[in-house]
């Protein structure tokens, strides 16, 4: 009896399920929302975060991507990705793949970028590219 192989190609997500966002934050350490996950949905994707620190005083900077919102999984404030930039040394970047974030049925939740310092020469940036499952 001859064996046969069946190749199954992955299907593309429906356009309405593609969810991506990004933001650049200069001179601020206020949490900034850049992706909103609808209530009752799970988002799966990749997160990239970068930090650029031109501060010449003895300050190291970091930029983090965190979860926010009631009932979010992982818990609100959880750092999903972070990049470090030593003072006056250029930039750092981190990419995390296959990240899952779950919104409860009661409310939407967000991903936020947070810089640890607010300086005119400090920039943090983040992108998230993924899909709703």
How would you portray this structure in words?
This protein has 133 residues and is mainly beta. It contains no helices and eight strands. The strands form two sheets. Strands 1-8-3-6 form a four-stranded antiparallel beta sheet, with no helix packed on it. A four-stranded antiparallel beta sheet has the order 2-7-4-5, with no helix packed on it. The termini are far apart. The mean pLDDT is 89.
Helical segment tally? 0
Order of helices and strands: EEEEEEEE
Summed up, the domain count is: 1
CATH topology: Jelly Rolls
pLDDT < 50 stretches: none
Helix content: under 10%
The CATH architecture comes to Sandwich
Average pLDDT reading: 89
Broad structural category: mainly beta
CATH class group = Mainly Beta
Rg from alpha-carbon coordinates = 18 Å
Main beta sheet: strand number and arrangement?
Answer: 4 strands, antiparallel
Query: What is the end-to-end distance?
Result: 40 Å
List keywords for this structure.
133 residues; mainly beta; Jelly Rolls; 0% helix; globular
Describe the SSE topology:
Layout: E1 18-26, E2 32-37, E3 42-53, E4 61-68, E5 79-85, E6 90-102, E7 109-115, E8 122-132
Antiparallel strand pairs: 1-8, 2-7, 3-6, 3-8, 4-5, 4-7
């Amino acid at each position: 009896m001859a064996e046969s192989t069946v190749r199954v190609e992955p299907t593309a997500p429906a356009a309405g399920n593609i969810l991506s966002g990004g933001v650049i934050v200069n001179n601020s350490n206020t949490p900034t929302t850049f992706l909103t996950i609808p209530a009752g949905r799970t988002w799966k994707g990749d997160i990239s975060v970068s930090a650029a620190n031109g501060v010449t005083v003895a300050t190291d900077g970091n930029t983090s991507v965190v979860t926010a919102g009631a009932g979010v999984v992982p818990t609100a404030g959880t750092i999903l990705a972070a990049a470090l930039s030593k003072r006056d040394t250029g930039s750092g970047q981190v990419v995390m793949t296959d990240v899952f974030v779950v919104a409860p049925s009661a409310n939407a939740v967000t991903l936020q970028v947070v810089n640890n310092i607010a300086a005119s020469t400090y920039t943090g940036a983040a992108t998230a590219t993924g899909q709703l499952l």
